Description:
- The structure is a single chain.
- The chain has helices spanning 87-103, 112-127, 132-146, 190-201, 204-207, 212-230, and strands spanning 3-16, 20-27, 31-37, 55-62, 68-78, 167-169, 174-176.
- The protein is an alpha+beta fold and 250 residues long.
- The chain folds into two domains: 3-78, CATH 2.40.50.140; 81-232, Recombination protein O, C-terminal domain (de novo design (two linked rop proteins)).
- A hairpin with a 3-residue loop joins β2 (20-27) and β3.
- The longest helix is centred in the C-terminal third of the chain and has 19 residues, at 212-230.
- The chain starts with a strand and ends in a 20-residue tail after the last helix.
- Belongs to the RecO family.
- InterPro entries: ARFGAP/RecO, DNA_rep/recomb_RecO_N, NA-bd_OB-fold, RecO, RecO_C.
- Residues 1-79 form the DNA replication/recombination mediator RecO N-terminal domain.
Amino acid sequence: MPLYRDQAIVLRTQKLGEADRIATLLTRANGKVRAVAKGVRRTSSRFGARLEPFSHVDLQLATGRTLDVVTQAESIAAYGEGIVGDYARYTTGTVLLETADRLVVEEKEPATQQHLLLAGALRVLSTGEREPALVLDSFLLRSLAISGYAPSFDDCARCGEPGPHRAFNPAAGGMVCTTCRPPASAMPALATVTHLAALLTGDWPTALQADPRTRRESTGLIAAFFTYHQENQLRSLPHLDLTPNPHLAG
């Protein structure tokens, strides 16, 4: 079987037989890959612990007919160590993994930007340097943008009229002008629109200035936008715990 090497983040695993696992991986060069890790459930396995969800690994894989096979695994970063012991980080992390799994649809299609975005989000989440809610909201917006669903927070999403505008509508694609505004559009505060734009572009100095009310309104709009464009709610979302951590700045 031909061999190839790639960096990967483990999105999920499932048992196979008595000692094996199937790992769903988001790789840097080959997109989403499903591969068998033989014998990893045995205590004597050489790399079982490296193939857990949240792990960032360097892998050698053998190409198979239906599933590839992991032949070597070296740890790059064990993000799970800083995530699984904290409920807010853990529930946020599971949403990050499920989102990446959902948005990268085709297997073996390059998804380098999604891989890099997920790796960066897991790194920040694991260190605790930013609140889980901010990490998640920024990730959802940016991952949707990479997938072709970038919301507009300035020009009208329908006619392109320069903003700022007052109305937000997920079906329309973001902020809309008075002429294009569909019924039942949300009317977010200007501070919320500024915050959303900062989360989308990664402008953290601006994003960290938002007050709790602005962040809550932003989170609701992001959830509505994501749900509309993905049709079905993420399974991990109802378990989310985003209680603010008073020890984190911003």
